[in-house]
């Protein structure tokens, strides 16, 4: 019951899972699931983009798996909840899911990125994971009027796993609008720009940067245009510090229970979570 331990980080949530636990959960969805299960990545930018749309915010809150993709979220979990978690980068989870799919014969569908990137990523993946069954692929620039056809293609491909590489929050919005039309997909991972990385068009930070929690900074200096999205990072840090300060003040007043859960108390928080689809309802 991972959602019982789901952590609230300001206006978003994260599951305190490591890579293996995330993968085990994906395997569970594949084996036992009867509907599309959403796997979304959580990073500080999402704290500002997702809550703008109440429906999207609710979809995010109810996601089946929210992975700690960004270092900011990992540090915030430590500071606000005293929970030590490690990053589960979306790109690495996708690679592990492909490995899993190749081993168990699951079919994947790649939707997103520019046509040549999508095609190249599909070639790289099938070379890298012998036996991987790529049931279909589509670039991420399908027009709204063509969407029913695409959904039909995804269904007819009988893909078990759908990777959505449309960028955020476009991909989460797509999931929200189409999830009820997907009749075979069991796992749907939002992968942002991962197809660009797999196709070799965008380089991930070298290990040194990753292990020092500075992948975001490497990305910023290699793609300075991202400054527009990453300018919210200082605001995120300030909000986390303010939230921590609030907790300390409440603690001092003997109201510790309320501080960590947005002023509603732990019991209320868990009650609120009771409707989130858990493993038992998969
Ligand atoms: N993209 C897409 N359709 C669109 C807009 C964007 O498929 O209508 C793709 C784009 O080609 C890129 C990805 O979405 O591959 C966005 O990458 P980015 O790194 O910005 O996403 P993030 O991981 O930061 O969410």
Quick rundown:
This protein is an alpha/beta fold and 282 residues long. 50% of the residues lie in helices and 13% in strands.
What would your notes on this structure say?
The protein is of the alpha/beta class and 282 residues long. It has one domain. 50% of the residues lie in helices and 13% in strands. It contains 15 helices and 8 strands. The strands form 2 sheets. The chain has a 6-stranded parallel sheet with strand order 4-3-8-7-5-6, sandwiched between helices. Strand 7, helix 8 and strand 8 form a beta-alpha-beta unit. Helix 4 runs parallel beside helix 13. The termini are close together. The C terminus is likely disordered. The structure holds uridine-5'-diphosphate. The site of uridine-5'-diphosphate has 14 residues, from helix 9.
């Amino acid at each position: 019951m991972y959602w019982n331990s789901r952590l609230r980080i300001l206006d978003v949530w994260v599951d305190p899972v490591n890579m293996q636990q995330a993968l085990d959960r994906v395997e569970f969805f594949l084996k036992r699931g009867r509907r599309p299960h959403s796997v979304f990545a959580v990073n500080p930018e999402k704290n500002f983009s997702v809550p703008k749309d109440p429906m999207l915010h609710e979809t995010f809150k109810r996601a089946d798996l929210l992975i700690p993709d960004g270092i900011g979220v990992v540090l915030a979990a430590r500071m606000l909840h005293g929970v030590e978690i490690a990053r589960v980068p979306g790109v690495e989870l996708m690679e592990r899911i492909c490995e899993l799919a190749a081993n168990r014969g699951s079919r994947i569908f790649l939707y997103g990125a520019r046509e040549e990137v999508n095609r190249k990523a599909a070639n790289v993946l099938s070379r890298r994971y012998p036996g991987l069954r790529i049931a279909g692929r589509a670039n991420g620039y399908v027009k709204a009027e063509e969407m029913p056809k695409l959904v039909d293609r995804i269904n007819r491909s009988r893909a078990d796993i759908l990777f959505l590489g449309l960028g955020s929050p476009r991909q989460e919005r797509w999931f929200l609008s189409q999830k009820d039309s997907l009749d075979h997909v069991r796992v749907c991972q939002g992968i942002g720009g991962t197809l660009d990385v797999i196709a070799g068009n965008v380089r991930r930070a070298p290990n040194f940067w990753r292990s020092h929690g500075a992948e975001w900074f490497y990305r910023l200096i290699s793609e300075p245009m991202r400054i527009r999205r990453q300018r919210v990072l200082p605001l995120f840090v300030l909000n986390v510090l303010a939230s921590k300060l609030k907790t300390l003040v409440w603690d001092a007043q003997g109201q510790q229970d309320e501080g960590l859960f947005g002023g509603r108390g732990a019991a209320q928080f868990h009650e609120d979570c009771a409707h989130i689809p858990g493993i038992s309802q998969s």
